[in-house]
Design goal:
Blueprint: H1 3-8, H2 12-34, H3 37-42, H4 51-99, H5 104-120, H6 131-148, H7 155-180, H8 187-205, H9 210-234, H10 246-253
Helix pairs in contact: 2-8, 2-9, 4-5, 4-7, 4-8, 4-10, 5-6, 6-7, 8-9
Amino acid sequence: MTWSRLFVSQYFPLFVFFVGTVPLLTGWVCYHLAMRPRAVAVFHPRDLQTSYLGALTLPFALFLAFMVSDIWNRENRYAQTVLQEVQQLDAMLDIARVCGPSCAPVDEAVGAYARSLSRYEWDEGWVAPRPEVSQAFEGLARAVAGTEADTTVASHMRSALLSGEIQLRRLRTDRYFILHADLAPHRWIVVLILGVLSQIGLAALHVGKRPQLIVALVTFSIAFSTTLAYTVALSWPTVDESIVPSEELRRILE
């Protein structure tokens, strides 16, 4: 099973739960290490400055903030791409219907392609191009090619239909690219390492001080766990056709 399949499979809630438990487990380990008699006897927290903790937590917070911002930006780009597909399909329908009987095959092919997209690819579980949609697009391409060869159709309409076909192909490719392009595949490991280092820093500042150590590690570990699990849950775009105005969607699916 690939990572992309895991994100959209029935195991995804368990995966999010597992990721959320990692900071809690590492916090528990840090607590027990900080309360070991040998650590209490050898290490004195006063040997460290409080600024030491900030030097660890600041990179962690900044890196996590940039990563969440990237995830939200990808979600917006994906939503815009789906909306542009709908708008382009709607525009091609307008052109085909103004063109008249000569463009009837294009009208039918656009509708078939839109229904295929709605059924197979405009949902939260889409991870790769579906052959059914590819076949529908090939049917649209053949219909546009037939219209292009028909000299009774005005040249500007033939040009607009061909341009629309090219645009639809590009938008479908863009959707796949937005989902799968990852220029920093190891960023999750970096976040975990920085978070665990912050927990170690907290434990080092409160070695042997049970109440302070418990409060510091519990609050930070819960915040770390919640933020990490929520970020993982957002990391796969969940856009579907519900973002499209119902009237426009109904029009292209008729």
